[in-house]
Structure to design on (229 residues):
């Protein structure tokens, strides 16, 4: 499968615990995006990387959230001291900048986080 | 906060009928894209229309864009039960080098067999 993959698909945790999600983008893609989606809403941008550099972070990304893309390939999103309000679907997308004018983003299946 | 609003929020039609969904947005855009999401799954890119385009077709999909009204519509012709999903419009803001997508709140489409 050459699409975007995310692990785990589901995560249930207790409030106050730390969680880490992983995203593996399409191999040649140089941009990687994280979005968060709550029930009944559209996804909201969290942050993005170009290669290994994190270039923009949303105000939604509090200091409990940290994202990395150490070698410009896979990325991790960590949430420390989880809160019930963190419960959401976390979506990863990748794209290849410069591919015509579309810069189409390809989404992974998401990681659904439930904080009890 | 989200950029756009979709209208209607929910739509129920009979198989074979056409489905029209509308999207309004707030800022100047580089392009507007439509995505589909099956329940609990990731998003699938359907079609992209650039700010200098007015209409685009892809199979049973027709998208229009009116930048003066800051609105777009997605028409699905001859709908099928398999078209049942949520549909989102997403914009890329003009001059935004991140090309991040700003999504609307979506239209939930139910196609009854």
């Amino acid at each position: 499968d050459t699409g975007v993959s995310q692990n785990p698909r589901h995560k249930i945790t207790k409030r106050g615990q730390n969680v880490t999600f992983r995203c593996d983008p399409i191999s040649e893609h140089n941009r990687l995006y994280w979005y968060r989606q709550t029930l009944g809403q559209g996804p909201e941008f969290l942050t993005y990387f170009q290669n290994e550099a994190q270039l923009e972070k949303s105000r939604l990304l509090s200091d409990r959230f940290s994202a990395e893309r150490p070698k410009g390939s896979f990325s991790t999103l960590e949430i420390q001291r989880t809160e019930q309000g963190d419960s959401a679907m976390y979506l990863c997308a990748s794209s290849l900048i410069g591919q015509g004018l579309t810069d189409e983003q390809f989404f992974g299946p998401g990681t659904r986080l439930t904080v009890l | 906060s989200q950029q756009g609003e979709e209208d209607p929020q929910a739509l129920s039609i009979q198989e074979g009928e056409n489905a029209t969904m509308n999207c309004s947005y707030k800022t100047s855009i580089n392009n507007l894209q439509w995505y589909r999401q099956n329940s609990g799954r990731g998003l699938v890119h359907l079609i992209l229309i650039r700010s200098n385009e007015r209409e685009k077709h892809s199979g049973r999909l027709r998208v229009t864009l009116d930048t003066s009204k800051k609105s777009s519509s997605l028409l699905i012709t001859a709908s099928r039960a398999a078209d049942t999903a949520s549909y989102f419009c997403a914009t890329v803001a003009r001059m935004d080098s991140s090309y991040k997508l700003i999504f609307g709140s979506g239209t939930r489409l139910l196609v009854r067999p």
Notes: Chain A is about 0% helix and 50% strand.
